[in-house]
Amino acid sequence: MKITKICCIGAGYVGGPTMAVIAQKCPHIQVTVVDLNSERIAAWNDDDVNNIPIYEPGLSAVVQEARGRNLFFSTDVEKAIDEAQVIFISVNTPTKTYGKGKGMAADLKYIELCARQIAKVAKDNKIVVEKSTLPVRTAEAIKSILDNTGNGVQFQILSNPEFLAEGTAVSDLMHPDRILIGGDTTEEGQKAIQALVDVYANWVQPENILTTNVWSSELSKLTANAFLAQRISSINALSELCEKTGADVNEVAKAIGMDSRIGSKFLKASVGFGGSCFQKDILNLVYIAKSYGLNEVADYWEQVIIMNDHQKRRFSNRIVQTLYNTVADKKIAFLGWAFKKDTNDTRESAAIYVANDLINEEANIVVYDPKVALKKILSDLDYLETREAVSNAKHITSFPDAYSTCENAHAIAILTEWDEFKTYDWQKIYDSMQKPAFIFDGRNILDGEKLKEIGFIYQAIGS
Ligand code: UDX
Ligand code: ADP
């Protein structure tokens, strides 16, 4: 089966970049990305390619090249489903906020809606690909809906989890460590797998394309994220011990990272991991383990989240304690709001929780993030439902540049590791602040010695 038309449901952080790269690498395949959110689709279609809704280094150039040629963004979901041979499902799967599994299980209502829509529209055989991170055995549920509500056509369900990290999405997609495709062991299943393998083979080496059964593929995605997050919680746990003992967590990370069995990546102590995946996927894993009665397994992985929550809270506590046990009416400048650099995504960003804690203490927060606007910051805080929206708006605002953000501040907190923070004129910032001037470096990116020479009281994570 030769694929010539692909449809992707969901034009978000996964669907958008992934389809843009597939379209760029496969000019012979027509790729249509659809979304219910017409504002988002309009932004993807904006004449000025710099206005696409997702900020990712290199992405606008890829979109520029392929859009209108073989890459299309549309709100006409049914037409795109009807025409495509392969349908990727890339819709959001947030953690449930209600009912059974609340706060733990993935909310699959958007996935189910997609499956029902595909079943309704499809008039010929389709390959349906799970791209969003999903709990193990979701493919089975999708298949059941498709087979029982469809028009009698055949569906093959593949799991093809996305491993891209935001901020490096384009290069991750162009040079993936591996492409993982899970499918049925039947002859039809194998044919579907091969059809998708052939798409990726346009730019990925065969030895980097891995095929498995559906469940292994689904579980591998959760496991990869759990392992990555676990490394961060492990080094963050040690960062607290370093602060007590006089060890330096950066030195410890370097020393252990040189052991080739451990490796040096993902050992950066921080204010805590964020992003749409780590917490959600671990909670998913915990929920699945519990549902099979595997309580020790569930507890083991849940500790990664508990540690991460502790790390965020510890950071805000440290700010309050250091500022003489009160931040009430004090100006705290936040540099960074995104959950990591080079993205405008703020989902689960540590900044949200630290800000929430400090607002509980009546602090006034001013934020500067090169890619995040006040509207998003406020909606992130309101989403926590800690207090009235007017009260959030009273306590937090943002400025368009770092220098005005820091003016008259009692303290600066670094929440995101944006490169530009390292290049600032820190003497100028110091001169404009209240004294003593504090910096809490939640990302360990600044030169602490230099800042201390200027006169700052500098506190990093884990030293
Ligand atoms: C992650 C996985 O890396 C990716 O493979 C998967 O597809 C989706 O989830 P993402 O969340 O986009 O990607 O970014 P990632 O680079 O993993 O960072 C996640 C969080 O961990 C960020 O808040 C980051 O700042 C933090 N982090 C990362 C650390 O605190 N220390 C580290 O050493 C690495
Ligand atoms: P991710 O990080 O997984 O890509 P996003 O929230 O950025 O998550 O993107 C998911 C997108 O899926 C959103 O733009 C949302 O509007 C879209 N979406 C959700 N359900 C449907 C649906 N049934 N049909 C079309 N689009 C949908």
From TrEMBL:
Any one Gene Ontology BP term: glycosaminoglycan biosynthetic process
Domain UDP-glucose/GDP-mannose dehydrogenase C-terminal: 333-448
Pfam families for this protein: UDPG_MGDP_dh, UDPG_MGDP_dh_C, UDPG_MGDP_dh_N
Active site location: 277 (nucleophile)
UniProt cross-references to PANTHER family, sorted A to Z: UDP-GLUCOSE 6-DEHYDROGENASE (PTHR11374:SF3), UDP-GLUCOSE DEHYDROGENASE/UDP-MANNAC DEHYDROGENASE (PTHR11374)
UniProt keyword list: NAD, Oxidoreductase
Residues given in the record as substrate binding sites: 162-166, 221-225, 261, 268-274, 339-340, 443
Organism: Flavobacterium restrictum
Enzyme Commission number, as recorded: 1.1.1.22
InterPro entries: 6-PGluconate_DH-like_C_sf (IPR008927), NAD(P)-bd_dom_sf (IPR036291), UDP-Glc/GDP-Man (IPR017476), UDP-Glc/GDP-Man_DH_C (IPR014027), UDP-Glc/GDP-Man_DH_C_sf (IPR036220), UDP-Glc/GDP-Man_DH_dimer (IPR014026), UDP-Glc/GDP-Man_DH_N (IPR001732), UDPglc_DH_euk (IPR028356)
Function per UniProt: Catalyzes the conversion of UDP-glucose into UDP-glucuronate, one of the precursors of teichuronic acid.
Family membership noted in the UniProt record: Belongs to the UDP-glucose/GDP-mannose dehydrogenase family.
Residues holding NAD(+): 10-15, 35, 40, 91-95, 132-133, 166, 277-280, 347
GO molecular function: NAD binding; UDP-glucose 6-dehydrogenase activity
Catalyses which reaction(s): UDP-alpha-D-glucose + 2 NAD(+) + H2O = UDP-alpha-D-glucuronate + 2 NADH + 3 H(+)
Lineage, uppermost ranks: Bacteria, Pseudomonadati, Bacteroidota, Flavobacteriia, Flavobacteriales
Record-linked SUPFAM superfamilies: 6-phosphogluconate dehydrogenase C-terminal domain-like, NAD(P)-binding Rossmann-fold domains, UDP-glucose/GDP-mannose dehydrogenase C-terminal domain
Protein name: UDP-glucose 6-dehydrogenase
Keyword Secreted: no
Coiled-coil intervals: none
Pathway assignment: Nucleotide-sugar biosynthesis; UDP-alpha-D-glucuronate biosynthesis; UDP-alpha-D-glucuronate from UDP-alpha-D-glucose: step 1/1
